[in-house]
Amino acid sequence: MAKFASSGPTPEIQPSLTDTYFNHTRKVVMANGDCEVTYAVFMRRPVTFAGRLAIEWITAMAQSRGATLKIEQLYVEGAWIGAGEPMCYVTGPFSVLVDLETIFLQRLGPACVAAYNAYNMCMELPNVAFLAMDARHCAGSEMAELMAYGASVGAAKAKAKANAIGFVGCAADATAHFFGQEKGRGTMPHALIGYAGSTVRAAEMFHQTVPDAPLTVLVDYFGQEITDGLAVAAHFHDHSKAGTLSLRLDTHGGRYVEGLDTQSSYAVLERNVPQALRGYRTEDELRLLLGTGVSAAAVWHMREQLDSNGFDKVKIVASSGFGPDKCRVFALANAPVDVIGTGSYLPQIWSQTYATADIVAYDGKPRVKAGREFLLYK
Question: φ, ψ for residue 213 (rounded to 5)?
Fold first, then answer.
């Protein structure tokens, strides 16, 4: 059997994954006579268009059934689309299209919202590189594919519009191609540091075993981000001087980075970016500026400690809870972060990812359910 020309469910698997009422409808149409229909596809919130995977899949499915679709794509990839605006019109035989709606929409909506969020993150911090570390937060490999694809679309748009660095890679090999890479990126989890018994030893073991990989060391395992970070920088002195060592802050929200509390967090921002503390701030913004976990103050604190000890070329990688809102606050504080690892461009409210398709014409005659007249051809 020839390989199916799409990364989505194959023709053999698709019927078991679609809504039963669509399968019933296909049987009814095939028994009573086919007609040509046109679907209008839209979402209920603003998004960035990332429809390639969905369109490739539905096109391949139609071809497997001996049909050719007419797809009128109203926006280019990466375009902003307002809530309720049709993204595309899909025309073809009713019997071919009716049971493909479920999976088509699954492959469309989440990617568009991920692209929207990724774009906003990249625009807030255009001089920062992002890594898509969402794979283990996804509900399976298909979702991981959609999220990585969406991030790549949003990043490409930000690069074109503002020359942003954007997303430069992801955690898994399978989705690395979306970012022009052959392999996933990443160095060590916290588990390796627990195994090694010390942060420095974990870094040694990693570098000895995978010498060609970039050296990025987690420093929060023992709650001694500054102590362990400086120890790693001193141990890998040549890397520190060459700018090829990075320290990754991933401190969870249950505690402050070593050496900080509320008052000292205010102080570190006052020394470096006093403007970030001026004006009205919501509780969420204040937490991201100077609260527990990887706050803007935590990154500034690490930068101060590295610089004062002669490690001004050591880079800082930040992760833990980064989405558009946190990126906005980090931009406000001009946080000196070089790379951000994130899975949080995944939509926080999954219901916002729902795409919808309605038939707006049968055999060329306009007809749509009441209340959806805005989808008709203008």
Answer: -80, 150
Number of residues that this document lists for the chain: 378
Say what the pLDDT of residue 99 is: 97
C-alpha–C-alpha distance, residues 313 and 18, integer Å:
53
pTM of the model: 0.93
Residue 142, helix vs strand vs coil: helix
Is residue 111 a contact partner of residue 43, using CB atoms and an 8 Å limit?
A: no
Kindly tell me the number of DSSP H helices and DSSP E strands found in the chain: 15, 13
Q: Which amino acid is at 279?
A: G
Question: How far apart are the C-alpha atoms of 115 and 150, rounded to whole Å?
Answer: 4
CA–CA dist 11, 29 (Å, integer)? 19
DSSP 372: -
Q: Which residues contact residue 372 at a Cβ distance below 8 angstroms, ignoring those fewer than 6 apart?
A: 40, 358, 360
pLDDT of the residue at 2: 57
N- to C-terminal Cα separation, the chain: 43
For the chain, the average pLDDT equals 94
| CA–CA distance, 131 with 186 (Å, rounded to integer) | 9
Residues 185/171, Cβ–Cβ less than 8 Å = yes
Q: Is the per-residue pLDDT at 297 higher than 90?
A: yes
Residue type, 181: Q
Nearest CA among 144, 84, 51, 57 for reference residue 345: 144
Place of tokens 């001004």: 312
CA–CA separation, 311 vs 303, rounded Å? 9
Could you write out the three-class secondary structure of 62-126? HHHCCCCCEEEECCCCCCEECCCCCCEEEEEEHHHHHHHHHHHHHCCHHHHHHHHHHHHHHHHCC
Q: Which one-letter DSSP state was computed for residue 212?
A: T
What's the confidence (pLDDT) of residue 252?
92
